Amino acid sequence: MIISCVIIEDEPLATEKLEDFVGKVPFLSLLGSFDKPVEGLNFLKENQIDLIFLDIQMEQLTGIQLLETMNQKPYIIITSAYSEYALKGYELQVFDYLLKPYSFDRFLTAVNRIYDDMLDRQKTANSSPNIFIKTEYRRENIVVKDILFVEGMREYLQINLEDRKIMTKMSFKALLELLTEKDFIMVHKSWLVNVPKIESIERNRIKIAGKLIPIGESFKEAFWKRIDNNK
């Protein structure tokens, strides 16, 4: 699991230190560093980020003011030389507070806690009828029963839902590990279908939502066995 993050910090040395620390942690992916809070906020409006490293005392906009403008917050780690903002930070659902100067060990403790928390949430999601699918910039919450079929498209999978389509770089194997429900079956090396969504089957082709999906030769036996067992 990779945690995407950004740094919003107007002190060059503090930014350099954070970038160095982030680079040492394999599961962290830094998508940007911003010395102007407004620029960071604009980036966050257009991109889904898992974690923000946020300074408090900045020109234009303080870290606290920035948090107050956000309706939906990712994980927040405040990095500040001022301990008096800790209580306010926690009121705004800040996950951790790193008091400058902080060590790499303290930094690692904070990001490891976030990793564990995200993993726990993912496990909970996987055991429920909803799953989270990672796209390029965000995680999409999907109601499993709304999946019609999944099409393999080179290095991507296109997940076709009743109301939208989602592109992900997941493999079929990884997706099937999330889809613990018995309703899903591979019918072709490039096609996965939700059996209850099948409208008709004719001449080794499945029709779902007007889409004709081929049944691969090596998948026929398992497919017909599943269909016959559903009768």
- Structural class of the secondary structure composition? alpha/beta
Query: How is the main sheet built?
Result: 5 strands, parallel
Radius of gyration: 23 Å
β-strand number: 15
How would you portray this structure in words?
The protein is an alpha/beta fold. It is built from seven helices and 15 strands. The protein has helices spanning 12-23, 37-46, 63-69, 86-91, 104-126, 172-178, 220-229, and strands at 3-8, 28-34, 51-54, 75-80, 96-99, 130-134, 139-143, 147-153, 156-161, 165-168, 184-188, 191-194, 200-202, 205-208, 211-214. The strands form four sheets. Strands 2-1-3-4-5 form a five-stranded parallel sheet. The protein is elongated and about 70 Å long.
Helix/strand layout:
Layout: E1 3-8, H1 12-23, E2 28-34, H2 37-46, E3 51-54, H3 63-69, E4 75-80, H4 86-91, E5 96-99, H5 104-126, E6 130-134, E7 139-143, E8 147-153, E9 156-161, E10 165-168, H6 172-178, E11 184-188, E12 191-194, E13 200-202, E14 205-208, E15 211-214, H7 220-229
Parallel strand pairs: 1-2, 1-3, 3-4, 4-5
Antiparallel strand pairs: 6-7, 8-9, 8-12, 9-10, 11-12, 13-14, 14-15
